[in-house]
Amino acid sequence: MSTITIALSKGRILDETLPLLAAAGITPVEDPRESRKLILATNRPGVAVVILRASDVPTYVEYGAADLGVAGKDVLLEHGSEGLYQPLDLGIGRCRLVVATQRGFDWATSIQRGARMRVASKYVRTAREHFSAKGMHVDLIKLYGSMELAPLAGLADAIVDLVSTGNTLKANDLVVVEEIMPISSRLIVNPAALKLKRGQAKPLIDAIAAAVEAAGAGAAASAAGAGGLR
Ligand code: PRP
Asked: Could you give the domains of the chain?
């Protein structure tokens, strides 16, 4: 029996991915948040997980070095998802991709005046598409992290970044001036692996789909419950 490898993003998404996989009956033999190992066997014979930097997950799955993967929509848009099958929105890692500026910066007026703005982001491809769809020409500056610093340090007028709780923006006196899109994590699958290892891959995808549905039903039920308390 060949092994099915699932590529997971380390960091925040992992905290939400592990319970979802557990609900689908897949548990790594060691906690990847504690272990320094990069390949971990799971309780399911023939299923292993690899722990990667988020932006590398699509690359592993695209080349078939991993069969399945969990990747944020932000990462997929930036990487390009040609050749990747995306059967499931996992409903985890939810956040928003936004444009933000320093509080008090008149973004709308600057745009109306046609001022050429500098925008810093890790998501330059997605940002370029967003602004060109609006007919705006902006100068994009590629950064790899701590985007919030760019307007404060005078590097850029605005940033394109992910917002979850909004705490980072708030702590740095930045405000959202445009919503680009909601983001969540997706299951990605190598199409050749799905054909060649269908007998092993399909039950895993189905189990993950059932876990997502159950989690969604749970969230809906608790929202209804909270509503009932009001
Ligand atoms: C992300 C994002 C923001 C922050 C938003 O960064 O880039 O900086 O989270 O979260 P909040 O709205 O809950 O404050 P992350 O911590 O993933 O690190 P990064 O800077 O390497 O992208």
From this structure: 4-93+184-228 (3.40.190.10), 95-183 (3.40.190.10)
From the alpha carbon of 145, which atom of ligand 1 is closest?
20
Task: For ligand 1, atom 7, name the residue with the nearest CA.
Answer: 162
Whether ligand 1 lies within 6 angstroms of the CB of 146 is answered as yes
Coil, strand or helix at 137:
coil
Ligand 1 contacts CB of residue 59 (under 6 A): no
Strand 158-163 relative to strand 117-121, pairing: parallel
Query: pTM, whole model, 2 decimals?
Result: 0.92
Give the CB-side neighbour count of residue 116, counting CA atoms within 13 A: 3
110-140 residue pLDDT tens: 988 888 999 999 999 999 999 999 999 899 9
Atom in ligand 1 nearest the alpha carbon of residue 144 = 21
